[in-house]
Amino acid sequence: MRAERRSGSLMAAPYAAFLLIFAAYPILFALVLVFLKWDLVTTPVFAGADNMRMLATDTRFWRAVANTFVFLSIHLPLQVASALMLALALNRPLAFRSFWRAAFFLPVVISGAVVAILWSNLYATDVGLINGVLVRIGLRPVPWLTDPSTAMPAIAAMVTWKNVGFYVIIYLAGLQYIPRSCKEAIEIEGASTWQRFRFLTLPLLLPQTILVVTLSTINGFQLFIEPYVMTGGGPLRRTYSIVLYLYTNAFAYQKMGYAATIGVALALIIGSVVFIQRRVIGNAEAL
Amino acid sequence: MRTLRRIGLYTGLAIAALTFIYPFLWMASATFKPLSEVGTLALFPTHATLDNYKTMWARAPFGRALINSLLVATTITIAVLVFGSITAYAMARLRFKGRPALNAATMGVLLVPGQLTLIPLYTLIVQLGWIDTYAALIIPYLFNATAILMMRQFFLQIPQSLIDSARMDGMGELRILFTIFWPLSKPVLSIVAIFTFMGSWNEVLWPLLVVREQHLMTLPQLLTVFSLGGGAGSIGVSLASAMVLVVPVVIAYAFLQRNFIESMAGSGVKG
Questions:
Q1: Looking at residues B15-23, what average pLDDT do you find?
Q2: Residue A227 gets which letter from DSSP?
């Protein structure tokens, strides 16, 4: 018993120390940095509520927040619909099932940096693959990433494409738990395919839908490498993301206190948006 | 009617699969095309060339970046498996003071978004003098809370009788872990190994913050800097440099796709 205690403490001690240095300290220091003005070179200065006041009136920050909501308003419905559709298709008896699944999952294993570089070429106005197809079928080329109205939707579509395979797996897992007896019962009642989907499959997949919405929301708020590589935040700052703004403040402007304040604000925004989403989706189900 | 619907289903699936695979095929073929052909839709270049690869290799230290990426990702993966399983073993099978607190802290860490701690961690690295060192890329990732919780969950299911009889034979806890628990835990160890390696291999924001010296950059960072800084100069060259990052992953994925899907979907890691 005493030996067990000793080896237990010894074996857990390195991890406990790691948590103190690389988790507890940064979390606490983030809250301290909110009140500091610090460029990493000179000594930090106490700034009171300056950072928070600045953030409240910083149009660039709120522009980035608004951009993220534009991104989410396109990305979330698209992500849920595409993942659900592909999962329903894959849930039938199929030849080459694992091939289809592997194909949809392929972009998930590829680095976001690569996907961003690849798609900035696919989206290119003159030589891009997508405009090449459009021109061939007689349409006019679209300046995807250089037009302020299409840049963010283009990025949202790309992120949906990159992550859909991941969410297909979540939905497939949920579909396996729909009892056969329910399917048979609703078929005997004479329900159409649409009715079966609307009143059986969709409600029973609610836990998966909540998970997909939550994960893609969190993921959406962390948008960084895509605008960094593809647009630099432009055109007209329409694709500037919150994390890109945080990175710019830390790296280009050396404003550690302000960058940390953006980080804390972002954590709070993510927490409240996810909380509200769960309440709304939960309530919609009760109706 | 039935056959018609099946044809429709397979056509739909084939078109969907093509939209996921074709861009990567186009990318691979574009790296072998001379500049004049890059804009074409054709998958096979009429005048295939290795110039893009030669240019990319000559202009930036991609060989070095490949070694850096392998070194960083391998070290982190081994550390997460070895140190993580030691921690998970203690948390699952040994009673000691502070165990409940450690469990709670591990859960708590998972709830904190990375952006909250990003800047404080960065200032810590600066103050430790670790900017432009491997330490900055590796040490903050030596332990992984998700991995520890997954391994702990798995270790909880291994029968106590195995531990008891091993102790009777005079085995120490570490020997029990590595000679009895490890062989029984291959499924969870492979899941942890894949998502840890992939997470590290694809990570780009953290290296962008803590590394400025080109020779210490990992592949995704060098690729980003190279393509953005105009070092590439042309699409073919920039895509050729992306291939260095993609090809090893696609080869591993082709052989281990089941494990990849299980691992990355289970952990919530998305490149």
A1: 93
A2: H
Q: Please give the structure tokens belonging to residue A34.
A: 């909110």
Q: In Å, how far are A120, A229, B200 from B240, measured between CA atoms?
A: 15, 16, 21
Nearest-neighbour CA in chain B from A245: distance (Å): 12
| Model pTM score | 0.92
In chain A, positions 195-224, which contact chain B (CB-CB < 8 Å)?
Answer: 215, 218-219, 221-222, 224
ipTM, 2 dp: 0.91
- Distance between CA A103 and CA B254 in Å, rounded? 10
Domain ranges of chain B: 61-267
Q: Is the separation of the CB atoms in B65 and B218 below 8 Å? A: yes
Question: Which one of B39, B148, B265 has the shortest CB-CB distance to A169?
Answer: B265
Q: Tens digit of pLDDT for each residue in A111-162?
A: 999 999 999 989 988 878 888 889 889 999 999 999 999 999 999 999 999 9
Domains belonging to chain A, first-starting first, are 59-286 (1.10.3720.10)
Q: Mean pLDDT throughout B18-26? A: 92
Contact call for B246 and A114, based on CB within 8 A: yes
Q: 3-state class of B218 per DSSP?
A: coil
Q: What's the pLDDT band for B117 if we cut at 50, 70, 90?
A: very high
Share of chain A above pLDDT 90, in %: 68
| Percent of chain B with pLDDT strictly greater than 90 | 72
Of the candidates A7, A27, A117, the beta carbon closest to that of B116 is on A27
Residues of A with Cβ-Cβ distance to B163 under 8 angstroms: none
Give the pLDDT confidence of B126-148 residue by residue, as tens digits.
Answer: 999 999 999 999 999 999 999 99
Give the torsion through C-alpha atoms of A199, A205, A206, A208, to 10 deg.
-170
Q: Which residues of B touch A243 (CB under 8 A)?
A: 115, 205
Q: How far apart are the C-alpha atoms of B80 and B144, rounded to whole Å?
A: 6
Q: How near does any CA of chain A get to the CA of B226, in Å?
A: 11
Of A8, A14, A102, the CB nearest to B257: A102
Residues of A within 8 A of B95 (CB-CB) are 1, 4-5, 8
Domain B61-267 has CATH 3.80.10.10: no
